[in-house]
Each structure stands twice: as C-alpha cells, then as structure tokens.
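An example makes the point: we let one protein speak, the chain in one-letter code, the fold tokenised, and here it is:
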Amino acid sequence: MTAARAASLLRLLNLTARPAVSAKGDMWYRSDLDQVRASDGGAGQPLTIGPTGNIPVVRSTGWHNLPGYGNAAGVNFPLDRLYAIPLWTGRSATLTGVSINVTTLLAASSVRMGLYESDGVLPTTLVADYGTVTTATTGLRTLTGLSSAVRPVLYFLALGRQGAAGTLGLSSRSTWEPIVSDTSPTIASNTNAYFIDGVSGALPGTFGTPAGTDQGPCCVVQLT
C-alpha cells in the first residue's frame, strides 16, 4: 500500500492474492475478480465489494423481487402514500425496469415509481422519478427503458399511489424486512417498507423522516 498526502488518500496496489496472514484491517484488491476485499480478522469469507461473490446475486437482465422473500399476499394501497422498499444489489448494476401487479383496479388512479439513495439506513435523496403506470386494469404494470446506475450500497425503490379515491389492491409479500425498523417496540404486523403521506405529484427531492412502517406492495426490478 502507498499513501499520498498523508491522512488524505489511501491507495491499494494491484494485488491478486489474499495476504498470507488474514488479520483485522487487511485490505486488498483482486484484479482477477475486480473485487475490493477487507478482513475483520475472523474466520470465513472477507467483506467483498465487486461484480462477483456477493449476496444478493444479480442475474443480468433478470427480474428480482422486492422484498426478496415471503408468502404472496395483497394490500390496499392508501391514496397519496409513498412507500420506500429496500433495494441492495450486491454489485454495480443498472436498473432498467420496475413492475407491480394490480389485484383490485381503480379507475383514474396510478402508481408513481422512483428511486432514492440512502444514508445507509433510511431513504434520503431522489435519484430518479420514473413516472406513473395506470392501475385502471388488473395485472402487471411495467416501466422499462430505465437507466439508473446503482452501486453495491443500500437504495430504496419508491412506489406512490396517486389519483382517485377508493380501494386499490396490489400484490404484496407477508414478511418482515430486517433493514426496516420502528422507533418504538412493536410486533403488530409485517413491516417491510417505510412510508410518508401527502405525495400527490412528482416525487419529493428528499424522502424526509418516515411517517412509519407498513406492509407495502411488492414489486420486481430488472437489473443489468
């Protein structure tokens, strides 16, 4: 390793093999795998950032579930509510599509989709507002042709209901999401998304403090 401008920049040499002694604080770059690795000195695989060897695994052009697990279910989507569902790709990729499934249609209504960055815990700054899909008929509603570059860090996929009042049903998954947490102890229902209310148009530039947690609708995202 070499340092330039002490305490300002740390540069890793182009190493391709794991150091002989795995110890806390070891860092190296595997040029054969394009991976940056770091060890905490414990047994097992080191922390890895790069295109392979991470969980979750990205299947190029495949559609990935958010949440990634849980029994099929359905939810009523409240009007003007914006849900934020955790998205972590595990490697650098491009988000090219988002799809939801309408189970109970509502005329003159729509769902707006978008993507937010996070501070590592909560949704923060808007990356992209993808626009809306109609929910006036049942079935899959999909936006494609998107192009959001995502790194192997935490993002939040945003789904917001807009338009007419009434009951709008979407597919969901009955599951807890460990990334989503409450501000006080509760074991009342499945919580897999943060939400804010009062979003009737374009997505806000910052998500702000969540109003709470809920079992939100599920979706699938296409990653390339």
